[in-house]
Amino acid sequence: MSHTSDFPTHWVLTLSCPDRPGIVHAVAGLLAEHGGNITESQQFGDPDSGLFFMRVQVTSTATRTDLVTAIEALAPRFDLRWHLDVAGRPVRTLVMVSTAAHCLNDLAFRQRSEGLPIDLVAAVSNHTVLEPMADFYGVPFHHVPVTKDTKAQAEARLLALVEELDVELVVLARYMQILSDDLCRRLEGKVINIHHSFLPSFKGARPYAQAHARGVKLIGATAHYVTGDLDEGPIIEQDVERVDHSRAVEDLVALGQDVERRALARAVRWHAEHRVLLDGRRTIVFR
Amino acid sequence: MSHTSDFPTHWVLTLSCPDRPGIVHAVAGLLAEHGGNITESQQFGDPDSGLFFMRVQVTSTATRTDLVTAIEALAPRFDLRWHLDVAGRPVRTLVMVSTAAHCLNDLAFRQRSEGLPIDLVAAVSNHTVLEPMADFYGVPFHHVPVTKDTKAQAEARLLALVEELDVELVVLARYMQILSDDLCRRLEGKVINIHHSFLPSFKGARPYAQAHARGVKLIGATAHYVTGDLDEGPIIEQDVERVDHSRAVEDLVALGQDVERRALARAVRWHAEHRVLLDGRRTIVFR
Amino acid sequence: MSHTSDFPTHWVLTLSCPDRPGIVHAVAGLLAEHGGNITESQQFGDPDSGLFFMRVQVTSTATRTDLVTAIEALAPRFDLRWHLDVAGRPVRTLVMVSTAAHCLNDLAFRQRSEGLPIDLVAAVSNHTVLEPMADFYGVPFHHVPVTKDTKAQAEARLLALVEELDVELVVLARYMQILSDDLCRRLEGKVINIHHSFLPSFKGARPYAQAHARGVKLIGATAHYVTGDLDEGPIIEQDVERVDHSRAVEDLVALGQDVERRALARAVRWHAEHRVLLDGRRTIVFR
Amino acid sequence: MSHTSDFPTHWVLTLSCPDRPGIVHAVAGLLAEHGGNITESQQFGDPDSGLFFMRVQVTSTATRTDLVTAIEALAPRFDLRWHLDVAGRPVRTLVMVSTAAHCLNDLAFRQRSEGLPIDLVAAVSNHTVLEPMADFYGVPFHHVPVTKDTKAQAEARLLALVEELDVELVVLARYMQILSDDLCRRLEGKVINIHHSFLPSFKGARPYAQAHARGVKLIGATAHYVTGDLDEGPIIEQDVERVDHSRAVEDLVALGQDVERRALARAVRWHAEHRVLLDGRRTIVFR
Which GO terms describe its molecular function (chains A, B, C, D) (predicted)? Predict the structure, then answer.
């Protein structure tokens, strides 16, 4: 017998699987059997990877247990990878920063004032300059210094925090330190970085100086998942800003801050709303 | 018994109906029963109008007759308004122009070189200056002069052409003549106009002169369905271009041509790909 | 005898006058006589208004007194309106807010981290919710409640603050109160407002609700000088953001915050860098 | 004695030289002595290269000879590199194409309808498919086949055409052939290429396939001067277009055509209006 609550919950279900007929019908059937009313849904079949992706928002009075049981029963037939969550539930997020404040300020502000569905459970920094800002926004601040000798120790501290605080998402908000391959692997798909260039242009250090030297007419920023392969992780969002010859490198840096925080905020929002699905080196973004 | 062809067809089905549980399941079920494999699908429920919208692309070996029969059987249960077409089939299109060439040139060029799925069955103009361009692109040209006295006659000629040529879409590509209310009603949902302003700014005549006088920093264009209410039809697409103080009215006109043709081309493409659904005064665009 | 300092100062000189031959030569000559080296300069003659506009950045060891004396001697010949300032000097700015935090946060953050050349000497609000944010950024906060009966009194308080604090620029950062005609006139050319629509679309109240009802595909914001004629002051900057059918009014409000703060920040920067000159109802922006 | 015509000519003068005080004054003085009225002017000093750049539009009744004589007399004092032209004079342009029509169509259309100040004196192609389009626009078409063995011969033919036709600008409008180093050097500063990527991303072959594989969220195009160093010439203009996961490589190619022609048309316009000055590997664009 199926237990239900009196009030419907707004669920978001995402899934991917090898593409084959009948998936949508099976999933829609499962949801209909649980009194679900689909409010928003998107599907996409990638002809290159042969994978099918689906994101569906549905209101239903069914319990989580009932839905999970039903999905688990369906999963083997289609070889589903899936995720079920309450729509709009704030994702527990840890932000790593160094000394640049713009991304932290932007995420914290949007969380507070623009309904960005994250819960900032910790700010971790190898410096202390952003502690007052974290305090102002009520985000617990952890100073974890990093030197060549203490890097392993610092990463262990980070992993401990991730575990203790049930962190679901780590955001590298201009953290400026390279994570070890091992850490990248352990947190794969859970770490978003903002790179201050329009990747794959200007990989590596000092991208704005490179952009200035090359005389580009647009500068950009790229939000991507972090993988072991530096600056090569799946891209979630990119944006650009027009510049001209009169801009010095430091102007590009200041202008770039705007593009960086915009691209990062969108990537974090889409991730937190379960709109981003991985398709090999690429992302599916159901906006 | 269901007849099928040996090779699957790529269908596109769009529908709208009052929002209610079970629609997606029912439609996905219908498609699954006909061996359909969904390649792309989007749904949206509008909380304001209470309507549900769906667009699905599906490959299936079922015949058109079988699909139509099945959809017709389903329609009353959900009060469906629906449309079934072969994906990518060129839509029979009549373009109305006056003397400005940029929109005609753009649509004809994109039809030929960028896979815009329209079939330009006629160009109708109250002038003859664009006849050589129509000839170059192989579009039959019809000169239908319009004066105050012959307006009714000219519209009758247009309607006759629409009927004779099985026209599915009429594009007002800077036609500069106002259609009668009666004609608008007869062709409702089948006529797309490009308005040379960012509506609802600068309705009426000489929008670029108005924009210049007001000192705006962006100029725009709006592609919309034509209704009896001038400049008030449902908007399909809008775009803008940055301008500055140094631009004279004639510069805005030239710059505006670019925005106009871009916005119009997108609107025509989305309409021809059955991505635009009407939701009262607004449009749903499943891009 | 001309006194000079040992180190050159970076000056910015702006001027406007009736257009006539010889202006640039005369100004450049004046600057050359004072050992000036022009680093950036722009001129524009408006054929409509018949006015000529010039902005020049110049390094010179001449004193302010010497430069002013020379410009004053030249001014009558060309009927010059002019302004001389040290380039990059922070402009003394008073921000008026109500309860929406995004514009205040953005301006204060950019002042601190992105070199926005303003000095936030006061935040004035008819509410107290933004007092902690003002405190965090070290901006003196003044609570000036406004009711129908106390409006005159509140405006007198504002004017007193403007005088006491040598305020050069007042920014209405989503202040939501209409200033009296008298106040507008007194502070003409010194007050920048951010309007939450792409003017002249959606003047008046609740522009996002109007935009939603009209089904526009881009929403915008407009930063403009305040004049007695509400929503009709000279436009400094506008920007837009793409939206689609799935966005509810509250989504437009949240998305709009981003456009609003971006357009406002640019307008404030250009004003503070003396890049904006008035040309009747329009602005010249020497970016 | 100075000869003047009865009607003033609108001149455009561009110059660059080592940065030093007095340049603007000297140039403005020279123009004033010839009755010049400056209508538009921009200056920029590049602190990196130490060069100063100026573009000035001026109306004057002085003859070309008189102006040239005066400029030649001034040039040694400041080590000027300069160019004087009649504003708006169409620049004699040769377009090289292969089989893709969009850039040729766009340039020819804008020349005819949007006041692009070029005179299309020849279209050169290694194929014949675009001959009818060249004919339609009245552009003399030259079929110059290129094979590995005939490349030197083909380039000689091109150079001969450039000479015979007094060609001032060569546009590689998706020509798809690499010019020899020698040719690049001979025509340095006179050849504009449109590259179908957002350089420096995706240099080399098949940039859209590379962009698709990398999963970028914006595709772009770059118009640049051609130098011996392939894809490394000074950038004049860049633009981008948003794409998403659902776009196949062929969609990117079609979408990219729009960005390519837009970026190329702007670069050609700015070059033809003498708004682009070379500053080492970078360009100054006085828009």
Answer: formyltetrahydrofolate deformylase activity
